């Protein structure tokens, strides 16, 4: 199978500290991939590099066959890469609906239309409403995004991320700050979206149970390097992985 | 209901010349100019999240360009539209330099560019007449050759011209901020990174916003010379850039009508305070302090309760 | 000197309240009125109880003293006239506003005074820019405006003689004074061959420097103009300018910065030892009271070595006439300070208005214009004649050395060089002055 | 050649006032992240206080300067404690607007207290006179200004590089959370820094009084230059402020000498060029 995204010895260094070092990553189309590892392993940095939020110091990034190493984020979105953020990142002053609509408009390249009213953007509106339903936010539709519950805000961010109809979507701890029930809910949703939208998801997640139940493939990072990579079972069996998690039950 | 109130306001403004004196009319024109000026400014601050302290520069470009045209070819329409166009071009160019920066850097840059235009107006005497400025600018007739020709000498007539331009510009602005473009700009204001990660080129849209703001400043500027028959460098000075800032803050940053209401308040306040004390600046300063410390929503949002986008 | 200023200020405030300048008590900015005494006149030839006069000048910022002097001079005249029963039975009333050196503000003021407050006559305006902005509006307002300080030749040469805006009059002498007069004086100094200029970086400085060079060159082909430095408004430090022109070893320096900036320039020139090098320094508006006050310490100390020359649009120790003596005395009695030129021009303006109204027995602008055109009138500054062609008052002011005089608390102009006004005025038809910067 | 050298020397003395002004501005921004629009007004206040103590009350020159620093320090303290402190969390726009409000207030306040007419205090006698350099006469006072400017530069360097307080300041400048984590009392520190900045501005103003005039609006007239300097040097960068000030001072000095017509413009052009080449300024990170 062809990798949807691939890196060649990718590196990012903050002064002495190697946040990401010599990473050769291969994400296969359609495989639900999780990136795990202890804090400071470089998971978020990696995603920032892949989504163009940071530029790498060394190495190259390929989306399918196009090199996108130094592309700006918005260009990567246009070829089908999307992401959510670890720290809540939505449009707080706009309504929930507008949050989604903006992303949809962007996908339809309608942003620059200066005169037509939002309602008149039929196609966009319909799709936005569809997504609102998919992420269970229909009833919150008209509330300012800053006013809805934290759980809903995470859902909203997920909604924004998929609203650009990506082929590849990075989710940085989509369930952070949620209680166990919500957590399951969100990850179930992610799985559902993956199935329905044929989107390849790459998530960073701490909840091992979830990770191992959900993922087709797991990438373990430590100190900026890829420690291990493989199917959940292979990872379970991996001694090094056990070591860094200090025998924590996995 | 809201529509009715609007209609009433328009009618009122339309009938104004019948029952107020020359001076009130003159002040009303100035209020309308400041409203346009502030609307454009607020597209940057309220809708795109960029505080420009150099808008007077583009106001001046519009004013000088219009004046130049009127002195060369006495056609009001030509002058005004020409002024707007030139202001648009200049703001596009300076925008390219400015939008690479955000937040405080942006504010300082715009401030410095504004002052650059000021010193240009002061220095480039062959073009601008130096500190004496351009004088004897005719209030040329409103004319479309072969169609119509309206004499502008009585101020009432010019008042109506300004009124029409204002109404059109305000309506246009309403459409813009409630369009996908408007939503996009608000997205950038709310979260630059998020906007970028849904595929929006933040820079390009900042540039668009900056240019539109420049166009509005230019329009306000272009309407000035026919009224005053002179243009002088102070219109480009940063203390003039501060007027839309104050007006917008006064009226409310995150409201559509804020800048307009603020503009009216600003002039009324100033005109009244000035008559009672020479220290109107200090009053203004205190007002600013109070607004920033206490009422960031501005006047308009007080009516709406929460100052949401309207 | 500061002590004196404080006294004069307090005295002014007292007086101001006495004169009913209500708004003024908290300083000089904004609106002020010299309200008429209650006594109602019996017959009303003009059909009005009061003749309303709207004035404006800079009463804020670094040049505030000029506006104050305009206000003080006109207030004095109005009080004198009202005390004698007013003009044709109508009392005079004044509203005075701050032009802030901003043309837009000056125009707004003019419009307010004429159309809202109902002024019959307008006067004042300090800055050239403001005068050029107010002038073109006057026809629309249908009011006369007597300019008492703004000094750009363009006001009368272009707007009146050129564009024919008849409502403009000017009672003060324009840039001819400092530029042409000074060149006529210094052509008599054979060993001053190398001139340098430190001039305001705006129209005023440009035209003065240009006229000075043109005229001097005519009489003295041998002089050179060796260097020039331009100083914009709000120049805080002239060291660089002074050093730059001194690098060319000039014999003399011609300078326009005025008010506070003029004082600063002269003090910094002293610091840099300029007066040990040059033979003369001509400070164009150095005869202005505020500037003389500012440097009196140094003059008393002989720091300028009698090399400092100056003129003004009027100087309190000239002419030696009863009118002038009376004016200066009354002014000092009233305000506890010496009158600056803008005080005299404002004072005389009120009397010109009086004469014009009494002549036409009406307040119609068109008739008043005719009355003032060609008018000859005796004023503290000497006999003034209003040229019909450009509405410019012709009168004579000498230039001289800045020296101390026992009769006055501050320096005066001594060793006066008196030339007939005709010789240093420009005369219609005017050809535009070409600036070579 | 000598002409150029001498002009440079004069330009340097002018640059030092700008340096004192820009230093405070850039320090405050670097640490508090607030661009103090009213910084020029503090400069003006410094001048007015110095004039009052020295020019009006005839207090000893040095003492007068010290007192004016103190007075402006108090003003700065109140500004920070009563106002700025409460809006650090807000968008930069509000901080800029707040300090802008202070410009309006200070400009009118000094008019109320000292009147609108320019004040002209005398030069302390021991500073009068000149000495000869490059065959020209150079005033002792300008030399003194250059000296004080350099001295302040050295002192600030020592303060930030060599003292505990300075290290704390630098730490909190680079990372507030981290700093407070290692036990820095951020609020007090911020107040301290703002007061320091205010005093630097005041020093610039106070040192100017004997040779300049004191009038309302001199602060607003200076602030634009200070902005340009910090933009050129890099916002929040002390070294940048110094270099920027020297550049601007020399540029205008040589501009006046060599191309009198474009002097004013040179500075803006320089700024534009710097921004195109190095958007964050010469020393900006």
How does this model look, in words?
The complex is a heterotetramer of chains A (250), B (310), C (437) and D (285). Chain A is built from 9 helices and 11 strands. With 250 residues, chain A is of the alpha/beta class. Chain A has one domain: 3-Layer(aba) Sandwich (Rossmann fold). In chain A, the strands form 2 sheets. A 6-stranded mixed beta sheet of chain A has the order 7-8-9-4-10-11, with helices on both faces. The two termini of chain A are 28 Å apart. The model of chain A has no long low-confidence stretch (mean pLDDT 88). Chain B is mainly α. In chain B, the strands form 2 sheets. A two-stranded antiparallel sheet of chain B has the order 1-4. The two termini of chain B are 15 Å apart. Chain C is of the alpha/beta class and 437 residues long. In chain C, helix 3 packs across helix 4. Chain C is globular and about 65 Å long. The chains are: A alpha/beta (250), B mainly alpha (310), C alpha/beta (437), D mainly alpha (285). At the B-D interface, helix 5, helix 12 and helix 14 of B face helix 4, helix 9 and helix 11 of D.
Break the fold down into its secondary structure elements and pairings.
The complex is a heterotetramer of chains A (250), B (310), C (437) and D (285).
Chain A lengths: L2 E12 L2 E7 L2 E3 L4 E4 L6 H9 L6 E6 L2 E2 L5 H6 L2 E4 L11 H12 L14 H13 L15 H14 L4 E5 L7 H18 L2 E5 L3 H7 L2 E6 L2 E6 L1 H6 L1 H6 L6
Parallel strand pairs in A: 4-9, 4-10, 7-8, 8-9
Antiparallel strand pairs in A: 1-2, 1-3, 1-5, 5-6, 10-11
Helix pairs in contact in A: 3-4, 3-5, 4-5, 5-6
Chain C lengths: L1 H17 L13 E3 L15 E8 L6 H20 L7 E8 L4 H15 L3 E4 L3 H7 L3 H4 L3 E3 L5 H10 L5 E3 L5 H11 L7 E7 L2 H17 L4 E8 L7 H8 L5 E4 L3 H13 L2 H4 L2 E4 L5 H12 L7 E3 L11 H14 L5 H20 L4 H8 L3 E4 L2 E5 L6 E2 L4 E5 L8 E6 L3 H4 L13
Helix pairs in contact in C: 2-14, 3-4, 7-8, 10-12, 14-15
Chain D lengths: L1 H31 L6 H18 L4 H23 L8 H23 L15 E4 L2 E4 H23 L1 H11 L1 H6 L4 H23 L9 H16 L4 H21 L4 H15 L8
Antiparallel strand pairs in D: 1-2
